What we know:
Layout: E1 14-25, E2 29-35, E3 38-40, E4 44-48, H1 55-62, E5 70-75, H2 83-86, E6 89-92, H3 104-115, H4 120-128, H5 144-156, E7 162-166, H6 174-187, E8 193-198, H7 201-207, E9 210-215, E10 218-223, H8 225-229, E11 233-239, H9 241-249, E12 254-260, E13 263-268, H10 273-282, E14 286-292, H11 297-304
Parallel strand pairs: 4-8, 4-9, 6-7, 7-8
Antiparallel strand pairs: 1-2, 1-3, 1-5, 9-10, 11-13, 11-14, 12-13
Helix pairs in contact: 3-4, 4-5, 5-6
Amino acid sequence: MKNGDAGRPPGEDLLVETRGLTKRYGRRITAVDNLDLAVRRGEVYGFLGPNGAGKTTTLRMLLGLIRPSSGRARVLGERPGAPDGLARIGALVESPAFYPYLSGKDNLRVMARYADVPWWRVDEALMEVELQGRAKDKFRKYSLGMKQRLGVAAALLKDPELLILDEPTNGLDPKGMADMRALIRELGSGERTVLLSSHLLGEVEQICDRVGVVRKGRLVAEGTVAELRGREGLLVRAEPLEEASYIAARLEGVEEATVVDGTLRLVADPERSAEINAKLVSAGIRVSELRPAEQSLEEVFLELTGRETV
Length: 310
Ligand SMILES: Nc1ncnc2c1ncn2[C@@H]1O[C@H](COP(=O)(O)OP(=O)(O)OP(=O)(O)O)[C@@H](O)[C@H]1O
């Protein structure tokens, strides 16, 4: 690779890049299998997969906590675990050990001192996770959601370019989950890049710009939520169905017409629905329903992950 002109090392617009990343445990377990991952600067990337798919193992490799069996990874242009890279990454992969009898703020002060972070970052990080009002309460009095937010604040102390969060809503109640989702959206809205893992589709669907779906250690799909959902379409209930299909297939703007389960599925721009309806009706077809039909991300996910439990 050649050096870039912008003063940044090459490849810096891909904050995370892996090639053939693999982690085996013994002969029988391949936790991560030939993974090619690319996380772009400024995006919120959702690493989505069922339990045991290899998400945590991947994140641990990216942080240099474990070594890959083969393949390579660059994080912020550095090899995983390199001090220069780590100084620009904040991570919440294992729950950090907080002192139960210290306040949230004092816990962060201790960490800031260890990490050689200026003291004023403690207040900023507390504000970012909206814990400033409870900063002086002892950690043990915090709800699970607050504890998790303090973990995020700890990851933010270095004001990192890249924030890596492993299942950040795990174990939280619905309100705690919603708060955490809102927080992640906020954290990822500016320059900062966020890589988060999740086994919950709804979660990545709501927060992420792009999603990588992992199954049994392999990346089975990658793209925006809209791309993963696939092409836009229309669902039509009409009589007689075969005739409707024949006519629809010949209409301008209809790419494909298929009869599925007693309905007609059209690959077409939903904005043309009124026009398609009018043409079918004028051809003598009785149309009882015509609406946009999107494959839900859940259907896509179940297809990709082989209908394992999520
Ligand atoms: N240290 C280890 N020794 C042996 N097998 C391991 C080890 N760590 C992980 N595995 C196995 O590797 C696979 C992937 O695990 P990993 O924890 O990365 O998955 P995950 O997608 O993060 O799932 P979860 O959300 O349940 O943590 C699993 O089958 C797991 O049992």
